[in-house]
Amino acid sequence: VQLQASGGGLVQAGGSLRLSCAASGRTSSVYTMGWFRQAPGKEREFVAAIWWSGSGTYYTDSVKGRFTISRDNAKNTVYLQMNSLKPDDTAVYYCAASSMLITPQRAPGYDRWGRGTLVTVSS
Fold it and tell me: Rounded to the nearest 10 degrees, how much is the dihedral formed by the CA atoms of 67, 75, 11, 116?
């Protein structure tokens, strides 16, 4: 499975962005798709995840109520709608896929990673 993330950019605080992660290849093997982010000087952290089939979604506490993860199986694409953005959301955002049943919040469980897309939120 190959992953291509897009949609990052520069936005003012309070604004919105929608990230996309297009999956190609053997997508039938995907169980979970996740978004992680890494801010300068910080470790990569979990943001959100969604089951490739079914309705389960997961969010880190800091983005609950502001971010929404969704998927379009017909397009093999996962989205991260980010609203009410804050300067603290500034980071490189990565999408990831797992071919196994995993704990969605744990990065080591994902075996495919896309290149990151930079989100910068100005104050």
Answer: 90
Q: For 48, how many CA atoms within 13 A lie in the half-sphere containing its CB?
A: 23
What are the tens digits of pLDDT across the range 11-45? 999 999 999 999 999 888 888 999 999 999 999 99
Report whether 27 contacts 47 (CB < 8 A). Answer: no
Q: Which residues 6+ apart lie within 8 Å of 6 measured at CB?
A: 19, 20, 21, 22, 117
User: What stretches in the chain show pLDDT beneath 50?
Assistant: none
